[in-house]
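Could someone model fe (ii) ion with this protein?
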Amino acid sequence: MHSIDSLGEFAVPSRHYSVSQLSINERHKLMERAFVGLFRWYVDRSQTTRNWNPDRSFDWKNMRQDHSPEVMQILEGFFAVEQYIPDYSAHGMTIMRESYGRSSFHLRWGMEEERHADLWRNALLFSGQRTLDWVEDYTDQLRGQEWGLPWDNPCHMVFYTVFQERATQVNYLNLGLAARGEESHEVFANDADPVLAKACQMIAVDEAAHYNFFLEGARLWLYYFPERALEALADVLRHFTMPARNIIPNYDAFGELLHRTSIFGLRQHARDVVKVALENLGAESLRKIEEGIRRSREIPNELGKIRTSAIFESLDFSHIENRVKQMFGRVNRLEAEIGVPEEQVTKFVLNPELQAHFAAL
Ligand SMILES: [Fe+2]
Ligand SMILES: [Fe+2]
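Reply:
Sure, complex below.
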């Protein structure tokens, strides 16, 4: 097994090496470096392109005062989901505090999620249909419950967050369509509102950025720890539910309304979340992933290489590798602009196991 100190030698094309030359520690170290680079790239982009403020960036005093009861109920639900930021932040941190890049990102992410709670709070208050007392009471009621992590490890959580962020983005985009008076359900016929439309658009862009960060993280897991990551991906897909749905009062009525008005339901989840995210992860379907895992389990443990090959067939790893390389390219361009010295640059290192697998095809 190679020590972490010898990591530098792997920064050259992997065809010179045989299978299994990256130890577990080396893979973790590569992931850590990548997450730090990705975090810095993310912050740079966030500050230059998405530096909005939930108070000043919106013309709240001109928000419509006569939104439909359906829009009001949806705003309450969105507000409720974003009210558990203290739990999302605190509990998430317990499983990643040791990782510099991931914990730094988690803080930044929590800060951006906090402004989402503030944004929906403003939407409720400026709607003219909810009093400050009502919002405060509802906040107390929500905060009386505590959200817990759906998974207890960073690998499962990164996949969970990929689907959760995408689902949240789709919810906000679809309410945005209603607020723009476009292609939406008849109950929203009188809900066109440029102020609400802008709120939906700004917050959806944040959720898209979150989705992309976690997607890059998920690809890193798939690239350096394919077996573990694929099992996590399959687990998360089998058991996925939106955060806090079991603790938000009347969530079922909110969920039913989202479904009935085509803002979000099983169809949107399958078509706009799962299918899109799986494509972005180089996967075809849960069935294909499960098939690969099952086939790999049928192979005896002592034939480790064959076991690994079986699992590689359930995913398009050349797609993963290309996307991981592109992510490093973006990080490296930022580092070049900053003037990061060559020896400190975030270098992409091929996974020799994958290279050997593809070379053997
Ligand atoms: Fe959010
Ligand atoms: Fe988010």
